[in-house]
Write a structure and sequence with these properties.
Layout (H helix, E strand, L loop, with lengths): L3 E6 L3 H17 L2 E8 L1 H7 L2 H19 L3 E7 L3 H11 L4 E5 L8 H4 L2 H8 L3 E5 L22 H17 L13 H15 L1 H10 L8 H7 L11 H12 L7 E4 L5 E2 L3 E8 L4 E7 L3 H19 L3 H6 L2 H16 L1 H14 L6 E2 L12 E5 L4 E2 L7 H21 L1 E3 L7 E4 L2 E4 L5 E3 L2 H15 L3 H11 L10 H16 L8 H14 L7 H19 L5 H20 L2 H26 L14 H33 L5 H24 L2
């Protein structure tokens, strides 16, 4: 039997619906109803003390009588923790049933206190009813996502296009990509400001352009390297909504606490420190609720632009716009799915396994989804605050070698290793934020290694060969290899007397790219991204240990790779496998040779020359003309000899003359007909 009921309210409209429901329930059960309001003590101080307390209590009592009649009673309690106060009053009043609304009763301390209804349901010793008090009883509106339907409408795209045009016009941008020196820095700053204002899609476009000195002026590349997100942080209610949508349970069922102030807030996600219910300290990356739909809309707009630009020769000569937009689209789609970043972390863990001084955070796989990523908190210090000692110096050397391992061996590297993404903890460097990674195919890796070794050995001619081997296509017809090698030699000379601390691989690779652009040698776009990453990595390594020689580390890395290949080669199982492959190939080679020589039955050697039919016809025609020409010449000579001889027959001169006319005429007709 229900004899005593309690309903909690903060006097909001939604909480009042819970009070109305409780009043109807108490009438049906003929039960007493206690209407409880919990007020924070600081609110009492701010409002003026005892007089305010009496007024609030009288107002609550009047409200309880209006809603509940004679069975209604009011109680005003001052407490900073509403959920704790509700549970305490339930025990003091021996309540049989407590009623709370599912929304409301949330304020700026939400992350510290959690969801009031959920905490009451977990801790109260009586029955708890949570009433759906959303407007019209309909609950929250479903979140609109890019996966819910079709592409953005024409109206949405036109509206967004107008906004983009307004932003660019406000920043005075017309010829931002012009390579003229007049106020290049000012145009670059304006371009960066416009991209930052336009949101995540255009910010990502700026990041891509910052790695492409072959497409944009140097001033733009330098300015976009510092491009930052400038967005207002999410409210705590927005963060909670995303968490609970992804976790499918109230957030406090998973987290003991979440720090209200974000560690970082970007255009795609926001990051908070938190503690799991088991006590583990973690960081939580929460996707902005509007990020997916905004990015999808912008990508739709950029695809329309790419379709128009694809047919414009002026654009085709400068940049493959559809390819850039496709790259941008694939990058953003991956960043919107946090499971890709989780997979990147696990893949990087395997790459870093040989290096005791390097690691990545653990991923809480069971709690991570498309829009929520939960990682181990690295509780150390910024990398540059690492204490002096052998561990610091060894970690610096390992950081450099690990980048050679990532780029030249694994073909998978952290593309944004600035000091903010490197932490020092327990004598280990932790690589953070693997949302931005790069991949390098096997052929590019081999050519890049040869390029670095040639520079290390100061071999200019082989450096030029390595650069051409790295190119994505043949050089232009008027390519001057000597001038190319001379310019590379000049670059090498500028680095010859530079100290190890001053030597930067990133700028070096960027300068090599610029030389290639001037000579119209097209290098892979990944080379600029590699150069940027190497530059950031070496800057951090040089701060840890200025004596680290990146080229010496490259040489030792190459020797270790060679030794590893030799060890793999002497593996008995591998030797047997390679031997069987060699035997099978040798057998097929000998069988083919025997068939070619005719000592074994089967199809012999067949050579099919493409275009041979046309070549044969041309040779035949030339031979025919030569034969006819020789015959005509003979007839002409015969005519002349018989005509001048004293005792020759008259018919001989006529025959030779007729033959000469016919053969010469036929030859001329054949020549003019085939032109």
């Amino acid at each position: 039997m229900i004899q005593r009921m309690l309903v909690a309210t903060d006097r909001s409209d939604t909480a009042s619906r819970a009070v109305q429901w409780a009043a109807e329930m108490s009438d049906a059960c003929a039960a007493d109803l206690l209407v409880l309001q919990v007020v924070a003590p600081e609110h009492l101080t701010a409002q003026g003390g005892d007089s305010t307390t009496r007024a609030a209590a009288d107002d609550l009592a009047t409200f309880a009588r209006q809603v509940c009649g004679e069975r209604g009673r009011a109680l005003l309690v001052y407490d900073s923790d509403p959920a704790d106060a509700i549970v305490r009053v339930c025990e003091q009043e021996r309540v049989d049933l407590v009623v709370v609304g599912n929304v409301g009763m949330r304020d700026r301390t939400e992350f510290l206190l959690g969801s009031v209804p959920n905490r009451v349901s977990h801790n109260a010793r009586c029955s708890v009813v949570i009433v759906n008090t959303a407007l019209n009883g309909a609950g929250a509106a479903p979140r609109k996502t890019a996966q819910d339907g079709a592409e953005p409408s024409e109206g949405e795209l036109l509206g967004r296009a107008a906004h983009v045009a307004q932003v660019f016009a406000r920043y005075g941008l017309r010829d931002v990509l012009r390579r003229t020196p007049d106020d290049a820095a000012g145009r670059a700053r304006a371009f960066r400001g416009a991209l930052e204002e336009l949101g995540p899609t255009f910010a990502k476009l700026g990041q891509i352009l910052s790695t492409r000195p072959d497409l944009v002026p140097a001033a733009v590349v330098a300015e976009l390297a510092d491009l930052q997100d400038h967005v207002a942080p999410l409210t705590e209610a927005e963060v909670v909504a995303v968490m609970e949508t992804e976790l499918k349970v109230p957030w406090e069922d998973v987290f003991a606490s979440i720090e209200p102030d974000p560690l970082a807030s970007g255009t795609i996600a926001q990051v908070h420190r938190a503690t799991l219910v088991g006590g583990e300290r973690v960081v939580v990356k929460v996707q902005r609720p509007t990020a997916e739909i905004e990015i999808t809309q912008d990508l739709g707009l950029l695809r329309r632009f790419a379709e128009k630009a694809a047919n414009r020769p002026a654009f085709q000569q400068v940049v493959d716009v559809p390819a850039v937009i496709d790259h941008l689209s694939s990058s953003l789609v991956r960043e919107l799915d946090f499971r890709h970043e989780a997979a990147n972390i696990e893949r990087m863990r395997e790459v870093l396994a040989p290096f005791s001084g390097l690691s990545v955070p653990d991923v809480m796989t069971g709690l991570s989804t498309r829009r929520l990523l939960v990682l181990q908190e690295i509780q150390g210090t910024p990398l540059l605050d690492a204490p002096e000692g052998e561990a610091r110096r060894e970690a610096a050397r390992q950081l450099v070698e690990a980048y050679y391992q990532q780029v030249l061996a694994a073909g998978f590297f952290h593309a944004d290793p600035h000091p903010g993404n490197l932490m020092w903890w327990n004598d280990t460097i932790y690589l953070l934020d693997l949302g931005m990674v790069g991949e390098v195919d096997a052929g590019t890796r081999e050519s890049l290694l040869l390029l670095l070794l040639a520079f290390w050995r100061e071999d200019t001619s082989f450096l030029a060969e390595a650069m051409l081997g790295l190119a994505t296509g043949p050089p232009p017809a008027d390519f001057d290899q000597d001038a190319f090698a001379d310019e590379l030699a000049g670059l090498m000379a500028t680095y010859r007397h530079v100290s190890l601390k001053e030597l930067r691989l990133g700028p070096l690779l960027q300068q090599l790219t610029e030389i290639s652009v001037r000579h119209r040698v097209r290098l892979p776009s990944s080379l600029a991204l590699i150069g940027k990453a190497f530059g950031q990595m070496q800057l951090a390594a040089a701060e840890l240990d200025p004596s680290v020689d990146p080229f010496s580390v490259a040489g030792s890395f190459y020797l270790r790779q060679l030794a590893g290949s030799m060890r793999a080669a002497v593996n008995p199982a591998q030797l047997f496998y390679e031997g069987q492959k060699l035997r099978a190939r040798a057998t097929r080679l000998l069988e083919g040779l025997e068939r070619t020589l005719g000592v074994r039955a089967g199809t012999g050697l067949q050579v099919d020359f493409r275009g041979a039919r046309e070549l044969t016809a041309a040779i035949g025609a030339a031979g025919r003309r030569i034969a006819v020409g020789l015959a005509a010449a003979t007839a002409i000579v015969g005519t002349a000899v018989t005509a001048s001889a004293a005792h020759s027959a008259a018919w001989a001169t006529a025959v030779f003359g007729t033959a000469a006319v016919l053969l010469t005429g036929g030859l001329l007709i054949d020549v003019f007909r085939r032109r």
